[in-house]
Design a protein that fits this description.
Length: 319
């Protein structure tokens, strides 16, 4: 198959068919219609074999995850998913791998109404870049910079599951199915992000770990926060692990959670609980925004846990 046959065969009809796609895959550009009164939310992420995933990992899961990380960014601003482009760098054109990869990508794209409208294919070390675009009514996107002293700090889902899966894989230990799913097929919290428009004052998705990502909200908002570690939402597996080895870095800094962290005024708490219940997504208040900058993590006895270096840094030596 030529490069063009490969593209036509694997990537010409991926995701939803959308009326706002004037022109999709096949020309030099896609042509997309942004409705009047909306802003275009755009984000891009790259996954590199050996850095973000193991080269021999399940390609269908990889197709899912490479789109899920972008959907998580849209969720974090409260944008509705619309379009994606996909740049693939492949060591070779393995048809079975491409079939599985595109299946994982396609399933997730369809379930969120995303159309794949273009991309690129090159030969080289396995690398996947997905650009994603969504729509948000003008001036309603939830940014990192809106947190106010007194706001509650909330998180969705459970923290540290993907991190624990990776630690078990690294140690050559068996990985329970639930943890493997959390690592390989994260569920982007798109519905929650949309439902929090007009309620959350600030929001971010958790890719690098709560300590680092909440830190970005606090820095952008010029505030600080106190969170209670015993209130962190944890799965049974992570809870058991912490009981054996109280390393709070697992839920706070291992990363790859793809949950949402947001701030909201206390009087919205009942409304948040109701919307979380309606969506069937766990949401937990874990602390409070304070005027003094910095993040303070309180242990059971009220003492402060020192996070040390938190969050994954690709360029730790850069100054
Ligand atoms: P150009 O050289 O003009 O950039 P390409 O030959 O790279 O065009 O791609 C041809 C068409 O196929 C374009 O519309 C492009 O967006 C699309 N395309 C290429 N690779 C992919 C891919 N992996 N997924 C979806 N569409 C793709
Ligand atoms: Mg090209």
């Amino acid at each position: 198959m030529s490069e063009f046959d490969l593209i036509r065969h694997h990537f010409s009809r991926i995701g939803s068919q959308r009326a706002d796609v004037a022109l999709g895959v096949g020309d030099d550009c896609a042509l997309l219609r942004v409705p009047q009164g909306y802003e275009l939310a755009a984000s891009i992420d790259t996954l590199v074999a050996g850095v973000h995933f193991l080269s021999d990992c399940d390609p269908e899961g990889l197709g899912h995850k490479s789109l899920a990380v972008g959907l998580s960014d849209l969720a974090a601003v409260g944008a509705e998913p619309a379009w994606a482009t996909l740049a693939l760098t492949l060591p070779d054109a393995d048809a079975a791998w491409l079939d599985a990869f595109s299946l994982g990508f396609d399933r997730l794209a369809r379930s969120y109404g995303i159309a794949l409208v273009g991309g690129d294919m090159t030969r080289g070390p396995l690398t996947i870049t997905v650009q994603i675009q969504g729509l948000v009514p003008a001036a309603t996107a939830i940014l990192r910079r809106g947190a106010r002293p007194g706001d509650l700090v909330c998180v969705s889902g459970t923290l540290g599951d993907a991190g624990l899966a990776l630690r078990l894989l690294d140690a050559g230990e068996a990985v329970p199915e639930f943890l493997r799913e959390r690592l390989e097929r994260p569920t982007p919290r798109v519905e929650l992000g949309l439902a929090l428009r007009g309620t959350a004052t600030a929001m971010i998705d958790l890719s690098d770990g709560l300590a680092a990502d909440l830190g970005h909200i606090l820095a952008a908002s010029g505030v600080g926060a106190e969170i209670r570690l015993p209130d962190l939402p944890l799965s049974r597996s992570v809870r058991d692990r912490l009981a054996a080895d109280p390393d709070w870095g697992l839920p706070l800094a291992a990363g790859d959670d793809y949950e949402l962290c947001f701030c909201a005024p206390e009087q919205k708490h009942t409304q948040i609980t109701a919307l979380a219940e309606r969506l069937g997504i766990r949401v937990q208040a874990i602390g409070r925004v304070q005027p003094e900058t910095g993040l303070r993590c309180l242990l059971e006895d009220g003492s402060i846990w020192d996070p040390g270096r938190s969050g994954y840094d690709h360029f730790p030596d850069a100054s």
